[in-house]
Design a protein that fits this description.
heterodimer, A: N-terminal domain of TfIIb, Rossmann fold, Dimethylsulfoxide Reductase, domain 2, 4 domains, globular, B: mainly alpha, Formate dehydrogenase/DMSO reductase fold, three-stranded antiparallel β-sheet, 49% helix
Chain lengths: 744, 609
């Protein structure tokens, strides 16, 4: 650069001291404001004006890592927080979302009273009695006219297990609904389906300690550096100088830390994984003993992968043949190989089979059930795991099966209800419910703590469908989410920190939520809202035992008895609090009380024959590949550790909002940018056959040619995405659609 | 209904006593209304006040769910129970009597164990290999230091670049660099910064600060951040209070990857290293300011290739900067004052105008000077503390500027009283010319201080050559243009002088426009230098301002004075002269606005812009 800089000027003075009027003020109100004081309670120093009179720890409400946050209290009210030190998950650390977890509670747009409007317009505050009467009257009238199944609910992975169970039980057993799903469909459904089919139960097998034990990591479609930084902490604590293999079309932060980054063509992961399996099998780098004992269908699988020759895999994935062999050798030579995947796999039109291709690698190499191994899905939302087991949507409460009569009887017995009140099949998935709105089958929808008007794939159509409903109820902590603004009836909900409950994290650990802040105005916990609905609907008696969250956990524990997720040994919240959370299973009899436990140590899986299945399928091409008209593949994903999904909460923190790009940006390869005549930070127009958005160009070789990446947090991005789904999990495929780019 | 929340009680009143007071009010209210006190109504009371915890001995969960409960009851009960905070009561307290930090063992290796030797100081060491870009350091610093909403003392930027084989994605965390030669401290007019003689930590004395924001100019790293609500700046002090008791700074404690450490560095080694560095522009990172300005102590270790081939993602487009309107007016008006006094002196020597005209010019100069200095106080966050502003004169050009303007104002008022009043004895009245010369000299001195104020910041747009030219030419332009008005008004025989003055105005306007437009040549550069970014802002976002500035100069500094110089308007030059002055004055104001608004400098990745 051209500026000439003057040499250092030493400006020390040898003049005599200054006269009095030039004195300096070392103390005063402004100085006092910044004073630190011993925090007591093991806290170290804290701001003096925020010194607590008590502390309590509770699990964070953003992602599924499930960190414990030590909340600083004054008169029982949260005034600050710091990460809990002695919790086996986060060990004294938190990401910025965790540090700022209290801030979103104090936002001005919190709902303080129910609002009645017409598709979000002319909203008027009403009292709870009117709200509940309206709720029941409108829904009952729709059900009378169009049948019970014409009203559905949409839950979330952001609510405690007890509330999810209440919503699912109330809607299905009390209000006669059949269809209900959650936003977990958008993040976890694939892992659920893959595990169920392969292992016989939805059971992520690992514990975070495995991050410290592996000598080879394989991350597929996962960027824990950004999406799960506190898990990445454990990888860096690993003392074995591990090989880190990252399979991702983008050169992410995690790829930058990898020893081997395979920048594959988008959606070619399945071919690559099958190709690696072929190399392992051809070289006899498999664990025959484990396969014989614990795995079915090996021969068929070995035969199937023969088609994935090195040439074919190179052609499809772009990974040269020698590289494939090197990677397979690393997996073979590793003593403790762990395989991890996140949304790059889950949010795919062939996600279930891709996840199973990962599971298959772990199974044939015997990398499961031992420290530092596993085929491990890193979950998304704080309670996606609770939702998977207890939301009563895809599976009956406690991971049971709606279609199984014995299961229905068992649940009915515990709940003291008539088994005939339990539907005999699972309801529609999220996407089919949306289609149901389109064809008039679904006319009423009750959305709790999720924001489909932002997050649903092919957003514009999603919004049109929500507007088409006869009655839309939105229950949320904010009145201003894109979805709440479309509601006919808005119900103000208390948030994380304003209620009790439990979350289940990625490693199956039940963690506790506590009540450390007052909800604004007349906002009620979702639990209380469900109690009110039960009362006004006239099924209060049916839920008479559901007095508070803790009582519901005890009911759910009874339901879980004998299941892989048996938690009958968990007696109360105090126990969870004292133990630093407890991983399932934790049966009343013979529970292992180790704080960190993994599954399948005995090599026995949950299928009736106790063996795991190798499941595989021919890979399919993208339904909308890049074309002449739309020459780029658009990938979406997390923008930064300071952002969470549709930003309804993280967007409220002024600190967090300084930690990411406020305006949308698109990552584009330098060669593509040059060809298009686009320069750094220039505004460009991104257009898919469905919609368009503008974004600032970030020119970087971290994305390959003919691909672009836009973080998912910007509302406009889902106007571009293509509505397509995994056929088994019904999870939307957010990371592949064709777009074109031009200077704006 | 009346009840008081905790904050409405004097401090020191126990919750129990608050409960009783509220209870008494509650019962009294009911008695007053001829109701019998009914404890069941306490739920409604709780909800009404929203301060339920003072009824902690009447917990809502003691209300048993009754099958016959009415709808109103259940809503009330749930709303009431929602306001009960249960965490303390229900769960046992950990660390109840623990005073040592529970996370001590996590950071023990990250801060120096033994004390500092002579010539050493503390510094941040950032391990780029370990940093994942999670930014927990920023949020933790905010929470553990109790900063204002949205206030952050640390920033994280991002470098990208490289090629297909080695793409770069490198996050960079940075806070105050606790420089060996802190420019914030040297620049501060009230000595509100201190560099600890032992630790080397540069801390800010919040109660000493007057909110002049000059440190925000002098710090090349954009570290001091200004709080509108408090009227002062604040900055990172490396959590000096924590370090002094063996605790790690907030950012160090909070990094999940141990990427931030406190290390000891030798200040002499840093000095030598900087002097030996051939390229004086080398900074901590690509695009960062030259380390030679302040000798920053932060060390970035690891990932040398990533850093070398990366470019900050936010470096390619210039951004318009804060315009500092009070400073725009202050600089323009005070420089005009100096120009006016100088022109008056020239006219006096040339004998071109009668004493009255010179007197008018001096009055005008004085008014401009006082207005300029007055408006400057609007720039202060705490103007009531302005009296401290000269105490930093040993190092601060701002203090020196204030001293310079005090001398200038003193001389100018002397000149004014001398020329305004007739009662002076002859031997004093004779000295008018000397006082006028003193006024001009002190004025030049003061403007020179103004110039240096900006030059020492090391910002490329505020280079010595450019700033000297701009500021002194403003004096010349406005001094001459105001003189045309006075000459046109006050003197019938002024046409000769008016023509010369006008010709001079044309000349200095050309010089000034040349100076300003030289920036545009940087547009052709391929690198995103600060000059190029500034020029980009000038021709894009600030194009309307630039056009207005050029138009006003063309009319007021070129066309009209050229016509005056050519002898047109000899009949009545007043109207064109007034228009001419208005145009040039406005034009100079816009020029000074752009001086601030387009000034892009080198900065750290992710620094506030």
């Amino acid at each position: 650069m051209s500026t000439e800089v003057a040499p250092i000027e030493k400006q020390k003075s040898s003049l005599p001291p200054l006269p009095m009027p030039m004195e300096r003020v070392f103390d005063g109100p402004l100085t006092q404001e910044m004073l630190l004081a011993p925090g007591k309670f093991g806290l170290g120093m804290v701001p003096d004006r925020l010194a607590p009179d008590a502390t309590t720890s509770m699990v964070c409400g953003f992602c599924s890592t499930g960190c414990s946050l030590n909340v600083h209290l004054k008169n029982g009210q949260a005034i600050n927080l710091s990460p809990a030190v002695d919790y086996p998950v986060n060990m004294g650390m938190a990401c910025p979302k965790g540090w700022e977890a209290l801030t979103p509670l104090y936002s001005d747009d919190r709902g303080t009273t129910p609002l009645l409007g017409n598709k979000g317009k002319k909203r008027k505050p009403i009292d709870w009695a009117t709200a509940m009467e309206t709720f029941c009257r409108r829904i009952k009238s729709i059900q009378q006219e169009h049948g019970n199944d014409s009203v559905a609910f949409l839950g979330t992975g952001q609510m405690p297990t007890e509330e999810l169970a209440f919503l699912g039980a109330l809607a299905k057993f009390g209000m006669g609904m059949k269809h209900g799903d959650g936003n977990t469909r958008q993040c976890m459904a694939t892992a659920v389906t893959a595990y169920k089919q392969s292992f016989g139960f939805d059971a992520p097998p690992y514990t975070y300690n495995d991050f410290e034990q592996s000598d080879v990591f394989v991350f597929v479609g996962a960027n824990p550096c950004t999406a799960h930084p506190i898990m990445w902490q454990r990888v860096l604590k690993n003392p074995h100088s591990p090989k880190i293999i990252v399979v991702d079309p983008r050169h992410t932060e995690t790829a930058a830390c990898a020893t081997d980054h395979l920048a594959i063509e988008p959606k070619s992961d399945m071919s690559l994984l099958y190709g690696l399996a072929r190399i392992l099998i051809d070289n006899d780098w498999v664990d025959h003993e484990f396969i014989n004992q614990s795995v079915n269908d090996f021969d068929a699988f070995a035969c199937f992968v023969q088609a994935f020759t090195a040439e074919r895999v190179e052609r499809e994935s772009g990974i040269v043949q020698e590289r494939q062999l090197e990677i397979a050798r690393l997996i073979h030579e590793g003593q403790r190989v762990s395989f991890w995947w996140t949304m790059g796999v889950n949010q795919s039109y062939q996600g279930t089979r891709t996840a199973q291709a990962i599971i298959n690698l772990a199974l044939i190499t015997g990398n499961i059930g031992r420290p530092g191994t596993g085929a491990n899905s890193i979950t998304g939302q704080c309670n996606a795991m609770g939702s998977r087991l207890f939301s009563n949507t895809t599976s009956l409460l406690g991971g049971h099966d709606f279609a199984n009569e014995q299961h229905r009887q068992k649940v009915a017995d515990v709940l003291g209800i008539d088994p005939s009140a339990i539907p005999t099949e699972a309801g529609d998935s999220y996407d089919r419910m949306m289609e149901g709105i389109s064809d008039g089958r679904i006319r009423g929808l009750w959305i709790v703590a999720t924001n489909p008007a932002h997050s649903w794939i092919h957003q514009e159509r999603g919004r049109e469908l929500l507007k088409k409903l006869d009655f839309l109820v939105v229950q949320d902590m904010y009145t201003t989410t894109e979805t709440a603004e479309l509601a006919d009836l808005y119900l103000p909900a208390a948030a994380w920190g304003e209620k009790e409950g439990t979350f289940i994290n990625s490693e199956r650990r039940l963690g506790l939520l506590k009540k450390v802040s007052r909800a604004p105005g007349q906002a009620l916990s979702d639990f209380s809202i469900f109690q009110l609905v039960a009362h006004y609907w006239g099924v209060g008696d049916q839920f008479a035992d559901w007095t508070d969250a803790e009582s519901v956990l005890k009911i759910l524990a009874r339901i879980s008895e004998g299941q892989p997720c048996d938690i009958t040994g968990i007696t109360d919240y105090q126990m969870l609090d004292e133990r630093g959370g407890i991983q399932w299973p934790y049966p009343a009899q013979g529970a292992n009380a180790e704080p960190e436990r993994r599954l399948f140590e005995d090599g026995r899986f949950y299928h009736p024959d106790q063996k795991a299945k190798l499941i595989f399928d021919e890979p399919q091409g993208m339904p909308e590949p890049a074309s002449e008209a739309y020459p780029f593949v658009l990938m979406t994903g997390r923008g930064s550790a300071a952002q969470w999904h549709t930003q309804t909460r993280t967007g409220k923190s002024k600190v967090l909002s300084r930690l990411y790009e406020i305006n949308p940006f698109v990552e584009i390869h330098p060669d593509d940018a040059q060809r298009l005549g686009v320069t750094h930070q220039q505004q460009v127009l991104i257009e898919s056959p469905r919609g368009k958005m503008t974004a600032s160009a970030r020119i970087t070789p971290t994305v390959g040619r003919n691909r672009v990446f836009v973080p998912m947090h910007y509302e406009a991005v889902n106007q571009l995405t293509l509505s397509h789904f995994d056929p088994y999990s019904r999870q939307p495929s957010y990371k592949d659609c064709a777009v074109k780019i031009a200077p704006a | 209904m009346v009840a008081f929340g905790p904050e409405q009680f004097p401090s020191g009143i126990s919750p129990r006593l608050r409960t009783e007071v509220n209870r008494a009010i509650f019962y009294t209210w009911h008695l007053f209304c001829f109701h019998r006190p009914d404890p069941n109504h306490q739920c409604a009371l709780n909800r009404h006040t929203g301060y339920a915890h003072w009824l902690s001995d009447h917990r809502a969960n003691s209300v048993i769910h009754q099958p016959e409960e009415t709808s109103t009851n259940i809503v009330d009960r749930l709303l009431d129970s929602q306001q009960q905070l249960t965490a303390v009561e229900k769960f046992s307290q950990r660390y109840l009597s623990v005073t040592a930090p529970a996370n001590e063992s996590l950071y023990q290796d990250l801060i120096p164990l033994e004390g500092l030797s002579d010539g050493e100081q503390y510094s941040f060491e950032i391990d780029l290999d370990a940093c994942s870009g999670c930014k927990a350091c920023v949020a933790a610093c905010h929470s553990l230091n109790g900063l204002e909403e949205g206030e952050i003392w640390r920033n994280v930027g991002l470098l990208t670049g490289g090629d297909d084989f080695n793409p770069v994605v490198q996050h960079i965390t940075s806070a105050c660099h606790h420089c060996v030669e802190p420019a914030c401290m040297h620049g501060c007019p009230v000595r509100a910064y201190e560099k600890d003689p032992v630790t080397g930590i540069v801390s800010h004395l919040d109660d000493q600060c007057i909110g002049c924001k000059y440190c925000m100019f002098t710090c090349p790293y954009d570290v001091p951040s200004y709080s509108e609500s408090k009227g002062i700046v604040r900055k990172c002090n490396m959590c000096a209070d924590r370090l002094s008791v063996g605790q790690a700074p907030a950012c160090v404690q909070a990094c999940p990857h141990e990427a931030i450490k406190i290390r000891k560095v030798s200040t002499e080694a840093l000095r030598t290293e900087s002097i030996n560095q051939q390229d004086s522009s080398v900074g901590l990172l690509p695009g960062a300011p030259s380390s030679r300005l302040t000798l920053p102590t932060t060390r970035y270790v690891g990932k040398p290739t990533a850093v070398a081939s990366g470019t900050p993602v936010d470096f390619h487009v210039g951004k318009s900067q804060h315009a500092h309107f009070p400073l725009v007016f202050m600089l323009t008006l005070t420089q005009m004052a100096m120009g006016v006094f100088a022109t008056a002196l020239l006219i006096r020597w040339a004998g071109e105008v009668d004493a009255n005209g010179i007197k008018i010019l001096n009055i005008a100069g004085f008014v401009a000077l006082v207005a300029g200095l007055g408006v400057a106080t609007l720039h202060l966050g705490r103007p009531d503390k302005a009296y401290r502003a000269m105490s930093g004169f040993r190092t601060s050009w701002l203090s020196r500027e204030i001293i310079g303007f005090n001398l200038f104002a003193g001389a100018a008022s002397g000149l004014l009283t001398l020329s305004m009043f007739r009662f002076w004895p002859e031997w004093i009245a004779n000295k008018v010319e000397i006082v006028a010369m003193a006024t001009v000299l002190t004025g030049i001195l003061a403007v020179e201080c103004s110039v240096m104020l900006y030059v020492v910041t090391g910002r490329p747009l505020w280079s010595a050559a450019r700033t000297h030219s701009l500021f002194f030419l403003t004096s010349a332009v406005l001094g001459l243009s105001l003189s045309t008005v006075v000459l046109a008004v006050s003197s019938e025989s002024a046409s000769f002088g008016l023509r010369w003055i006008s010709a001079g105005l044309v000349l200095v306007t050309i010089l000034k426009l040349v100076t300003e437009s030289r920036l545009l040549k940087h547009l052709k550069q391929t690198d995103s230098t600060p000059e190029k970014l500034s020029a980009q802002v000038l021709v894009t976002e600030k194009r309307p301002h630039a056009s207005a500035r050029l138009g006003l100069a063309a009319v007021g500094g070129l066309l009209l004075p050229a016509l005056l110089a050519a002898g047109l308007f000899s009949a009545n030059a007043v109207v064109p002269a007034v228009i001419l002055f208005a145009c040039t004055f406005l034009g100079e104001l816009i020029e000074r606005y752009l001086f601030f608004a387009i000034s892009n400098a080198r900065r750290m990745p992710g620094a506030p812009n």
